[in-house]
Fold this protein.
Amino acid sequence: MKGDLRLEMKLEEIDITKVITEELIDLNLKATTKMEVIEELTHLLYVNHCIDSEEGFIKDVLYREQEGVTGLEKGIAIPHGKSESVIKTTLAIGRTKQPVEWESLDDNPINIILLFAVKTSDATTVHIKLLQKVATLLADDEVLQSLQEVETKLEVINLLSKNNE
Amino acid sequence: MNIVGISACTAGIAHTYIAKEKLIKTGQELGHNVRIETQGTIGIENELTKQEIEAADLVIIAADIKVSGKERFKGKRIIEIPTHIAIKAPKQLYKKIEMELSASK
């Protein structure tokens, strides 16, 4: 019980920049296919020392893709990998120049991708709670719309650190 | 209506929480009292209480995997759907439920 309380308090104190940083955002992805998007964002995670194997992480992301659609609506997708390859639970965000083919709930192609990287052994940390908060924000159509209108990386971070409680 | 439910997805990272939020928000907009328990990678959160379940007119299970503790809803009317229905069309879901309930009255 006390542990839970402490977690809650920590969550208030720790801001979203613990899981999303400008280095992990690329608003000019070169990718033109779903696979290239996953590879490019995975590489971004790798060079920022968030994962230790691109191959291993991609395998786990694709495993999740098989289980069901990760495209939401309004051009936004949330692929995710729960993987042994993850060193640090985090989130990489990318935007493609042209929408790419990607299974989605409204059948629209995707141009904004939030790739969640979750450490397998990280089941109870604050980082997962923060990713959860980001997911909850994505339930709001206005947030999805605003994500489509951002111009800078900072705007992305500001939008996703909006308090939704 | 008083509605309780569970949301759970395969990885337990994102869809579980999007589904929860949509069910609650849309339910409230339509005048329902909604409580959703999440069963995610982090474990069970917002666990439903016995009293809440007792007072519920309806149970919504939005899940892509087997949820735990279903026996708690014995004797209740249960609607089971995959998470994507709750995420994509929560309003239609509630409308359909309302229609079915009034038809069976």
